Amino acid sequence: MDNRRTAVVVEDDRDVGDAISGLLLKVGFEVSIARNGTDALAMIRDERPDLVTLDLTLPDIDGVEVCRQVRLVSDCYVIVVSGRTAELDRLIGLEVGADDYLVKPFSMRELQARVAALFRRPRSSEQVTNDAAPAEAYAVEVPGTVDGLIGCDDLLVDARAREVRVDGEEIELTRTEFDLLAHLVGHPGVVVAREELLRAVWATDFVPDSTHVVDVHLANLRRKLRDASADNQWIRTIRGVGFRFDPCCT
């Protein structure tokens, strides 16, 4: 079976695109380069890559729209690589489905670390098989599980199947939203700091300038939980510290 990883580098700056491509080739990826959004979407649909690095400023389609369309057809890892430094750009990129956001200029060493961190997390489509990586290789630890099930009467997290049910109905979460919820639910009643969530869910010791990325994904997670159960108060914000899962709150 062919276990080689594939990547699509979406970058209209040839020097930057070639540098990213060279790094990914060096660490074992097969790489295709797209210079615009139209070509990128076609490549991603055809090649089904494991990783996409995505510039936001493209000559035809804005990178945010490219990311939104990618998420309709693929659960590949997406790292936005952009010269846009405004917090709003970072938040929008993450809200439409990017897994990470790296601001230009950046070092190839940091990009390599970010890529390695992402691949220590299971993608939502991955199924556990006899040949799968051992559970301890996964970033999110879920202590005290029974047959992989954690939560409370109204909210059930199946850590093995990577499914979440509210009042018996399954809700769709992104990979990051699931990992955040699983980590919090796995530590009921414990205040979990934002920095701990970064290390556990993003599986990296690289702490960005702001931990606001955690707040953005948690806001999306809370919205989905609220849509499924309007009165839930499972996830509490502890001001200045982090978050706590309260299973008794409904």
Question: Which features characterize this protein?
Answer:
8 helices; Rossmann fold; 36% helix; alpha/beta; Arc Repressor Mutant, subunit A; four-stranded antiparallel beta sheet; single chain; 250 residues; 2 domains; five-stranded parallel beta sheet
CATH architecture of the largest domain: 3-Layer(aba) Sandwich
- What would you call the structural class? alpha/beta
SSE pattern, N- to C-terminal? EHEHEHEHEHEEEEHEHHEE
Total helical segments? 8
Report strand order across the widest sheet: 2-1-3-4-5
Number of domains: 2
Outline the low-pLDDT stretches: 125-146
The CATH topology name of the largest domain reads Rossmann fold
Report the biggest beta sheet as strand number plus sense, adding barrel if it closes.
5 strands, parallel
CATH class of the largest domain: Alpha Beta
Q: What is the 3D shape? A: elongated
Percent of residues in beta strands? 15-25%
Mean pLDDT, nearest integer?
81
CATH superfamily of the largest domain: Response regulator
Radius of gyration: 18 Å
Cα separation of the termini: 47 Å
Helix content: 25-40%
E-strand count: 12
Organism: Nocardioides baculatus
InterPro entries: CheY-like_superfamily, OmpR/PhoB-type_DNA-bd, Sig_transdc_resp-reg_C-effctor, Sig_transdc_resp-reg_receiver, WalR-like, WH-like_DNA-bd_sf
Domain Response regulatory: 6-119
Pfam families: Response_reg, Trans_reg_C
